[in-house]
Amino acid sequence: MTNFLSLTIITSRESIFDVIQACMNIRTSVRPIFSYANRIPSRPSLAFSRTLFTSHRPPKNWKAAGASIATSTLAFAALANTHQIHSQAATEDKMAPVAASTNGQSTKPRHKVVIIGSGPAGHTAAIYLARAELKPVLFEGMLANGIAAGGQLTTTTDVENFPGFPDGIRGPEIMDKFRAQSVKHGTEIFTETISKVDLSSRPFKFWREFSEDSEPELADTIIMATGASARRMNLPGEEKYWQSGISACAVCDGAVPIFRNKPLVVIGGGDSAAEEATYLTKYGSHVYVLVRRDELRASKIMAKRLLNHPKVTILFNHVALEAKGDGELLKQLRIKDIKSGEERDLDANGLFYAIGHVPATDLVKGQVDCDSDGYITTVPGTAQTSVKGLFAAGDVQDKKYRQAVTSAGSGCIAALEAERLLAEEEEYENINEKDAQTHPNNADPSKAGL
Ligand SMILES: Cc1cc2nc3c(=O)[nH]c(=O)nc-3n(C[C@H](O)[C@H](O)[C@H](O)COP(=O)(O)OP(=O)(O)OC[C@H]3O[C@@H](n4cnc5c(N)ncnc54)[C@H](O)[C@@H]3O)c2cc1C
Questions:
Q1: So what family is this one in (predicted)?
Q2: Is the CB–ligand 1 distance for residue 244 below 6 Å?
Q3: Which of 33, 301, 367, 403 has the lowest CB atom count within 10 Å?
Q4: Mind listing the pLDDT tens digit for each residue in 63-99?
């Protein structure tokens, strides 16, 4: 039995990267749990943390930050080693195993339900499963796909359309509440990323990041709630004005005051762009749609609606070059006519990307049916995938709505379906066992003449 410490780290925006570096250095013995309420890492520091974490190489500004990182790392590691840090003791045997594996595949714990992902879908599934006493284990990720534990909402400021919060709520704060509710009902949460799964037979096998060479852990069912991330253009100025004028979700952000009666720009030429632009006409003074090609990819009906809208101008053959602002908010977009080569500044208080999302499905690629855009396909109206026992919830299987509340809803569906499958299988096993006891010949097909 290996003991390990579970630490709750409260950190400031400025020192988040110090802490992550510290955790990296002592990650073998410490499993950190970040409390992210009201602690959105500033963009540069988040990017910096990712560089540290993914490359394990010093980032460009290493020298400047080096001294403080080294100090905090050493201090943190020393404290951890001497068990002086305020900590929640936890041991490996608290991992909610259903049973040690009995089929010779692994001596690691076997869980009834494992949830991968920590957005609204994952936590809603966890709440339902924990209340059903199925002891769910949830892996919230360690900056998996570059997104903090808690998911996409941790990257936004105000969430105004999640029911139950009439005054709105900060994105990180609502995810803290989701997490607290999961924990309250008994979910075991690990701040680790699952890097490999084997879905070829049940129980499924899975591995945590950096433990790929060790024995797998086992899961009777898995809920994939790994989410998606919006494609971005990485324009100069984008980091600075992201969520300060730049967004990837018109439905989420369109109604906020900074966009009211102001010129807005949508980039993209497909159905999503057409939908987002039409939606934004309710709020903006005018909506420009930047399309790289000389035609829209959107369906005929959507394209027609857009072309005929009095508040919409489509700028065909145009690309964006730079996001410009006053240091606080986006004010203009530098654009280029790729046919004439002419460049100009377009007044724009809002810039909305509608160039697609990337679902986080690398983990299961080739093992489960996905659509042409990589989203896991589910049986309509359910969370069932093409692999029995694997359920998908949230943005990873939804390219249409992509909202916190729809993700939460599908998390609930996934949990109820996992619960039902496990109950059915348990019942079936019990009947077989009983049958074998009362009619011993049935247990042995050869004796039963089969
Ligand atoms: C800037 C922004 C603002 C938004 N505003 C709103 C809004 O106001 N209202 C609204 O309804 N919706 C909003 N949305 C959309 C909403 O955030 C998403 O629809 C929702 O978060 C999707 O939830 P999810 O549970 O599918 O996963 P996500 O929120 O995408 O979370 C998935 C989590 O799983 C983790 N993960 C991924 N892979 C692994 C792995 N292998 N192992 C462990 N963990 C892993 C990720 O790191 C991530 O933390 C916004 C989105 C963005 C980007």
A1: Belongs to the class-II pyridine nucleotide-disulfide oxidoreductase family.
A2: no
A3: 301
A4: 333 333 333 333 333 333 333 323 333 333 333 444 4
- Based on the residue annotation, tell me whether 412 is a catalytic residue of this protein: no
DSSP state of 376: B
Q: What is the DSSP letter of 94?
A: G
**Mean pLDDT over residues 364-374, rounded?**
96
Residue 151 Cβ contacting ligand 1 at under 6 Å: yes
Whether residue 347 is predicted with pLDDT greater than 50 in this model: the reply is: yes
Q: Does 409 sit in the ligand 1 pocket, CB within 6 Å?
A: no
> Which residue do the tokens 């009902």 mark?
185
pLDDT tens digits along 375-389: 999 999 999 999 999
Domain count, the chain: 3
362 & 339 share domain: no
Where is the domain boundary, 353, 386, 410? 353
Rounded CA separation 220/102 (Å): 13
Mutate to test the pocket of ligand 1, among 226, 239, 259, 410 (most ligand atoms within 8 A of CB): 226
**Rounded distance between C-alpha atoms, residue 230 and residue 319, angstroms:** 18
CB 209 within 8 A of CB 227: no
Residue 368 Cβ inside 6 Å of ligand 1? The answer reads no
pTM > 0.70: yes
Q: Name the band, by pLDDT with cuts 50, 70 and 90, for residue 175.
A: very high
Interval 181-199 mean pLDDT:
98
Domain that holds residue 322: 238-353
Q: Is 252 marked active-site?
A: yes
Ligand 1 touching residue 121 (CB < 6 A): yes
